[in-house]
Amino acid sequence: MTSSTADASSNYHSLRAELETLTTEAFRPELSQIDRLSTLEIAKIMNAEDATVPTAVATQLPRIAAAIDAVAERMSRGGRLIYAGAGTAGRLGVLDASECPPTFNTDPSEVVGLIAGGPSAMVTSVEGAEDSKELAEADLKELSLTPDDTVVGVSASGRTPYAVGAVEHARARGALTIGLSCNAHSALAAAAEHGIEIVVGPELLTGSTRLKAGTAQKLVLNMLSTITMIRLGKTYGNLMVDVRASNEKLRARSRRIVALATGASDEEIEQALAATDGEVKNAILTILGGVDGPTAARLLEESDGHLRAALAASTG
After folding, report:
1. Residue 152 to residue 195: CA distance in whole angstroms
2. By the 8 A CB rule, do 51 and 81 touch?
3. Which of 219, 96, 210, 83 is nearest to 157 (CA)?
4. Percentage above 70 pLDDT, the chain
5. Are 257 and 273 in contact (CB under 8 A)?
6. 130 a catalytic residue
7. Which of 10, 12, 40, 165 has the most CB within a 10 Å radius?
8. Does the active-site annotation cover 301?
9. Residue 186 to residue 198: CA distance in whole angstroms
10. What is the pTM (predicted TM-score) of this model?
């Protein structure tokens, strides 16, 4: 056996031994005959499995809330929220980031999703990309991190080198770091300032972490971005007042949001949106605050985009 072959064999056995210690990789003998069950029986089992995920998330809510407050503080100073992961975890980060501009009118540079192997890895596996800490470092260097930025490493196993490397690189540069994994005592959580471990247990299909682990990660990423945006004044109550009306559906939603916030007539709403170049938040302020479009824009700028604060200023 050559030395390179011996090294490969040693690495294989080492990785196999490591994976066998992970809850997300555990084999469930009670499901070893699942392929012999009816479709409805399998669906019932899978649905019952999925129902356990929110409970697992609930155990980590104090940690999640603390992380969100830290993210919001930094983003209020101009920092960015950056997700970094490989495979399913990376795709979930890219998905969450891509939904922020139309939902909250953020600039695409404010919430960023990095996936090991680059954009092509969204649809095609890029061999070896997840195993490289150096690749994560290179991807983050292109973003020129600052201490106001936040990097969220996402990895079901909590050991993926790309996610761990991203967090280590970011922390060394003074950025806020969050490690989201689905195994206890993970390297990722240990490397991050805020470790969030959602232990959902073994999967229906052994090691298929696109299932419960993926669902858990999606729920937490939803919280990170959504509640951060609420803290930043991107909503008014539970209304998406910073929504970007980029198509007919969103234009209709914009009008409905103004109506729900103000109770104004259709004519008033059309006039307000016309006076504010279609900006929902500004339109609401012109109606409720009794100000014109330019004044609404000024009050919102002085209130850092917080509609409630701008309303108080307009009536005070």
Report:
1. 10
2. no
3. 210
4. 93
5. no
6. yes
7. 165
8. no
9. 11
10. 0.90
CA gap 91, 77 in Å, rounded:
27
Helix (H) or strand (E) holding 215: helix 212-231
Catalytic residue among 73, 99, 268, 270: 99
* Residues 92, 98: Cα–Cα separation, whole Å: 10
Cα distances (angstroms) measured from residue 221 to each of 171, 277, 313: 20, 32, 34
User: pLDDT (tens digit, 9 = 90+) per residue, 112-148?
Assistant: 999 999 998 898 877 677 788 999 999 999 999 999 9
Instruction: Compute the average pLDDT of residues 31-38.
Output: 95
Q: How distant is the alpha carbon of residue 83 from its chain centre?
A: 7
Check 25, 49, 110, 130 and give the catalytic one: 130
Distance CA 45, CA 50 (A): 9
Residue 172 CA to residue 166 CA, distance in Å, equals 10
